[in-house]
Every structure is written in structure tokens, then in C-alpha cells.
């Protein structure tokens, strides 16, 4: 299967680009070390038994030893996941990023507890697994991430779950309708120059051929995190069993 990589070339105008990628000074330091950035989220972890996990491990190794490695900080394989619903970040407290039914000054622990209570009774409503295909790389703006494209029926199912979670949790992020499913591999810690961007794009396109066309993810998980290196599962969202 041919996977397009033309979207890698679309870049924001030079005047609009911030001095550093957006993950720097928030999620990561300039040297690539991780910063505290607590919050909660609903994700599907990539299982170590997955064919994609094994293939990404080889890709990870290639990125780790690349001459371009100074441009990015790699995320631990144990953190690899697809976000189903974004949740909140403690450091981002403004309408659209914080639940409508909680004050903006409420401690994160209170938000975690409210979400856990609501989600414990949430009915996933369908089989707790998802088939996805790899559609290329996200644009090289703030990180290295695979763009994921569910088949039409699966996408409708995921979009419906997102809408129901938004309603339940009283949280609707900007761009909710157009959210692009993805799996992050690394965050950029400095903007590549033109030559570096071309080299990194070429490397990623070469490595893409070693990944499976399709893969499967299990049930969404409500997770808490202290930083971007680990997402701690609190429980799986589940399909509620009818009584009787």
C-alpha cells in the first residue's frame, strides 16, 4: 500500500511559527527532559503484543541513533497510545479545556474524581476494540506522530463515543469535530531547518514501509498522568451488561 507523505511538506508561515515547538517549556525542557504536566485523558494503549508495537520498536531504535536525534525527544514505548478523548491538563484552565460544571480553580484531584465517577457508569455501547490503518505521518510541526485512519464504520463509532464523552464530562475541546486520530512517537524540542526537515521526512518515509498497514486497539482507558512519559490506567471503559 502506498502511503502519502505529501502532508509533511505543509508548514505554517515563517511569521506565524513560535520560537520553539509548543511542547517546549510546557511538556519538555530544551534538553529534551520531561517536565511535570499533570492531567487526565481517555486513551487506547498500544499493546506490546501488537505487530505495530514490534515494528515501532525498530523505528524507535532508528530514530534513537539518527544524526537528527537532537531535534526531538522520544516517548517511552510504554506510553504509546491513541487518544480517544483529550480530558484536561492542570496547567490549561480556560473554557473549552476545562469542564463546564467545575470551577476553573478546582484542584485537579477533584476533576479526576468527578470524571472517574461519571465514567465508571459509562456504557461504551459497542465491542471494546477498534481496527485502524496507518495513513502516513502528521505534519512535522511539533512532533513525530502517525496519522491514523479508522475505516468508515469504525470512525463513526469513535466519533460517537467522543460526542457522548464530551456530553457526559461537560467538556468540548476546540476542534472537537475535526480531531485527527494519531499515535505520537516523539516531540520536537527545536525546529528543524530546511535541510534537517527534508532529511527527517525522508527517514520517516523510509521507516513507514516497515509498519503494518492495519492494527487493532483494545478498550479505551481512563488514565491519569503526571507527565508525557507515562499514562496510568485507572480503569477500562466497558460495555455495560443489560440486566436480567
Automatic annotation (TrEMBL):
Residues 27-139 form the DUF1868 domain. Residues 1-10 have a biased composition (Basic and acidic residues). Residues 1-24 are annotated as: Disordered. Signal peptide: none annotated. InterPro entries: 2H-PEstase_DUF1868 (IPR015069), Cyclic_Pdiesterase (IPR009097). It comes from the Bacteria. This is DUF1868 domain-containing protein. It comes from Rhizobium chutanense.
Amino acid at each position: 500500500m502506498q502511503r502519502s507523505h505529501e502532508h509533511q511538506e505543509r508548514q505554517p508561515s515563517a511569521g506565524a511559527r513560535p520560537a520553539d515547538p509548543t511542547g517546549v517549556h510546557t511538556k519538555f525542557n530544551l534538553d529534551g527532559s520531561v517536565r511535570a504536566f499533570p492531567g487526565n485523558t481517555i486513551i487506547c494503549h498500544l499493546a506490546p503484543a501488537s505487530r505495530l508495537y514490534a515494528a515501532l520498536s525498530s523505528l524507535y531504535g532508528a530514530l534513537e541513533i539518527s544524526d537528527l536525534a537532537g531535534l526531538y525527544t522520544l516517548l517511552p514505548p510504554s506510553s504509546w497510545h491513541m487518544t480517544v478523548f483529550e480530558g484536561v491538563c492542570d496547567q490549561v484552565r480556560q473554557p473549552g479545556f476545562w469542564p463546564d460544571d467545575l470551577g476553573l480553580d478546582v484542584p485537579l484531584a477533584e476533576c479526576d474524581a468527578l470524571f472517574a465517577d461519571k465514567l465508571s457508569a459509562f456504557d461504551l455501547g459497542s465491542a471494546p476494540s477498534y481496527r485502524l490503518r496507518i495513513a502516513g505521518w502528521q505534519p512535522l510541526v511539533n512532533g513525530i506522530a502517525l496519522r491514523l485512519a479508522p475505516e468508515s464504520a469504525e470512525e463513526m463509532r469513535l466519533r460517537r463515543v467522543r460526542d457522548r464523552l464530551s456530553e457526559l464530562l461537560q467538556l468540548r475541546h476546540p476542534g472537537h469535530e475535526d480531531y485527527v486520530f494519531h499515535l505520537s512517537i516523539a516531540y520536537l524540542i527545536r525546529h528543524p531547518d530546511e535541510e534537517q526537515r527534508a532529511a527527517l521526512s525522508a527517514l520517516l518515509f523510509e521507516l513507514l514501509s516497515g509498519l503494518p498497514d492495519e492494527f487493532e486497539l483494545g478498550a479505551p482507558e481512563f488514565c491519569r498522568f503526571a507527565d508525557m512519559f507515562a499514562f496510568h490506567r485507572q480503569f477500562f471503559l466497558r460495555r455495560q451488561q443489560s440486566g436480567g
